[in-house]
Amino acid sequence: MNKLFRACAAVLLCTTFSCTPIMKMAYGIKNPKIETDQSLLKKSKKFGFRTDNLATVNEADYLLVLQKNGIPDANIFDKEGRYIEYRATEESCNAGLFSYIPKLGTDTAHKYTNVTTLQAETQRLRDLKGNAFTSLPEADYYVFIYWAAFTGKLNKDHVKAWEELAASNKKTKIAVIKVNLDIQDYWTPAFKNEIYSSMNKK
Questions:
Q1: Residue 152 has pLDDT above 60, yes or no
Q2: In the predicted model, is pLDDT for residue 29 greater than 70?
Q3: What pairs with residue 77 in β-bridges?
Q4: Between the CA atoms of 51, 86, 155 and 198, what dihedral angle is there, to the nearest 10 degrees?
Q5: pTM reported for the whole predicted model
Q6: How does DSSP assign 145-167, residue by residue?
Q7: Which of 70, 76, 124, 127 has the highest CB neighbour number within 10 Å of its CB?
Q8: Beta partners for 76?
Q9: Under a CB-based contact definition with an 8 Å cutoff, are residues 173 and 61 in contact?
Q10: Are strands 183-184 and 34-35 parallel, antiparallel or unpaired?
Q11: Torsion of the alpha carbons at 150, 84, 86 and 113, rounded to the nearest 10
């Protein structure tokens, strides 16, 4: 891994996660572990998540996805693959999802932006073993929920609530894909160890 990549990785990780013990306590961030397909399945069951819609991110796009998305956070797309902006403003937090997901319907008006597309985000995904992600079902809307095992309990409660809200919306068909942002065991040793070391600094 070259020096430029290491520098970029450090900047992105420090931007996304504070390295101070105080901030780790405030946000419930635990020292990240390297996760396998089995450990993620076990933890998903523990958190009360469905386990048939889990995905991870390939190492080439991991830092980009980590920088773009909070934990937990979500992206919403329509069946045409267009990105839907559910936040009222750029400064708005993801709390708007609690009211936006129930309002989704085939006749709902949305604010579309070119931030990304369903195709672009799906290409970054892998299954829990690192294989190409091919489990995107037909739906009217797609909600990609980003989460990690190393964040606090409140974050897991949000993920579970968003998934349940999507399932209880009977006005339209919503497919939820839960994108895990932990360190994946299937990544190459050099990248995996670099991220692990950066995230576990005191």
A1: yes
A2: no
A3: 83, 142
A4: 90
A5: 0.85
A6: EEE-TTS-HHHHHHHHHHHHHHH
A7: 76
A8: 84, 143
A9: no
A10: parallel
A11: 110
Q: d(Cα 55, Cα 145) in Å, to the nearest integer?
A: 10
Is 162 in contact with 101 (CB distance < 8 Å)?
A: yes
Cα separation, 19 vs 57, in Å, equals 23
Would you say how long the chain is, in residues? 202
Contact (CB, 8 A) for 107 and 181: no
C-alpha dihedral (164, 167, 170, 173), degrees to nearest 10: 140
Write down the H helix ranges in the chain: 3-16, 21-27, 37-47, 59-68, 97-103, 118-123, 153-168, 189-199
Distance in angstroms (rounded) separating the CA atoms of residues 185 and 187: 6
CA dihedral defined by 46, 97, 123, 64, rounded to 10 degrees? -90
How far apart are the C-alpha atoms of 82 and 75, rounded to whole Å? 10
pLDDT digits (tens, 9 = 90+) for 170-185: 999 999 999 999 999 9
Sign of the C-alpha dihedral computed for residues 23, 155, 101 and 75 taken in this order:
positive
